[in-house]
Amino acid sequence: MADKHLTENLKGNYFSSERKDMKFLKGFTLVALLPLWAGYAFALYNGDSNNLSNYSLLILAFSLINFNAICGVEKIENKVLNLVAKLDGVLFFVWAFVTIIQLLLK
Length: 106
Fold this sequence. Notes:
This protein is mainly α and about 110 residues long. It has one domain (about 30-105). The chain has five helices and no strands.
């Protein structure tokens, strides 16, 4: 009886379905990345290294939360959030590349 119930759950999308609060968190963090990128650019423009490192850590944390959406492995149903995820992904990989080059040159 338990084996039958387990195999029925494995056949369906029981384990692959995402909770509603996780969908909200993913959308929130994707949208929150945009002001973080703007703050990073503003801190870079002003030359404020303290804020620059704080923004870098926040960008890294939020990008790792949404890594599947940013890399394109997971497609989001909402077209706007999908576009924001692609934009965040491009910004993240450019930022990582520039950071690595800066570390190698120093």
